[in-house]
Amino acid sequence: MTLPVISTYGMKLTGSSELLIGIAIGIYGLTQIIFQIPFGFASDKIGRKPVIITGLLISSMGTCIAAIIENIWGLILGRALQGVSAISATILALLSDLIQNKNKTKAMMFFGLNFAITFAISIILGPIITNSIGLQGLFLTITLLTLLGIVLIIFFIPSLSQQNIKNSNHQYITINSKFIKISTQPQLIKLDCSIFFLHTILILNFMTLPQIMNVLKLLPIEQSKIYCINILIALIVSAITILYAEKTKKMKKTLITAIYVLFLSEIILLYINSNFYFLFFSILLFFIAFNIIEGILPSILNKETPNTHKGTINGFYATSQFLGTTCGGILGGYLLNIYDIQIIFSLEIIVTMIWLIIIYSLKEPTHTKLN
């Protein structure tokens, strides 16, 4: 919910600047990077739910700090603590634990769609809530949602027995040997690169799109309507596309096509961002591509993941995602502090071209997992 508003409302905080806003966005990803793999590994050893609850408690502390301290450094500190709640990999692993093998691919696909839907709702609600009760009120709302998440995980999610958690010593000889083994799998590296590039571009876009809308004199409520219309259309298109890709086993082809759609949206933003209709169309293309990619990647990852190392491999994947968040935030803030927004869109185009070169060598996923 903070992405559409933090680059504009955050500038009103005491001591704020484009660079510090970029740091406030990026530091969340940085602390996620530091803790994502250790949390995933810990979940393989001691269980998923204790790790998830701990992460949510830390996250609620961070949002409270961001809400109470009304200056840029309070925002940076709060975002840093939010990032310490590095539980994305653990949640993915828990989902995989609780689902029968025959349903795991479908479950991961719907998890990706669920993420896209949640993301869409957040993008719509963020500007509305912030416009009504301010940035601090938004963070208090996020705190309440985080506490609700703790209630859900405690009372509504089944617990696994220790026997069901694959944590025997012979499966974990050393941390270093596991890291080397997993990190050198070509398929996983390409998937990690994909989520990194996707979230780098995501953050760069949300540092620039609100500024373009402000130049076009669009009020926050009008910006919310633009996001709402585009996201609803994108969700329908992406859901149909992902289901088709899964049914026809054309995940790689669909992924590459979505990256090309993303590339087209960046070209339009670079050259015709001052025209409302072209801006509207480019945002629609971006959300369609983003939702498709975000939905397909977890499904491919699940096909390529050994059962015994789910938490750790998802940790690498989530770490790559938040590394993209970090790079997008800090690099975007630095560049906007010196140049105009055109440099951001040029950078996105270069990143996407590199991404396409890497992803062309991705093998079509099968149900056979890496050993």
What is the structure about, briefly put?
The chain is mostly helical. It has helices spanning 3-9, 18-46, 48-68, 72-84, 88-98, 104-155, 175-183, 186-215, 220-248, 251-272, 276-303, 310-338, 342-359. Helix content is 80%, strand content 0%.
Task: Report what the structure shows.
This protein has 371 residues and is mainly alpha-helical. Helix content is 80%, strand content 0%. It has helices at 3-9, 18-46, 48-68, 72-84, 88-98, 104-155, 175-183, 186-215, 220-248, 251-272, 276-303, 310-338, 342-359. Helix 10 (251-272) packs antiparallel against helix 11 (276-303). The radius of gyration is 20 Å and the shape is globular. 50% of the residues are buried. Mean pLDDT is 83; it is low at 167-176.
Q: Which secondary structure elements does this structure contain, and how are they paired or packed?
A:
Blueprint: H1 3-9, H2 18-46, H3 48-68, H4 72-84, H5 88-98, H6 104-155, H7 175-183, H8 186-215, H9 220-248, H10 251-272, H11 276-303, H12 310-338, H13 342-359
Helix pairs in contact: 1-6, 1-8, 2-3, 2-4, 2-5, 2-12, 3-4, 3-5, 3-6, 5-12, 6-9, 6-11, 8-11, 8-12, 8-13, 9-11, 10-11, 10-13
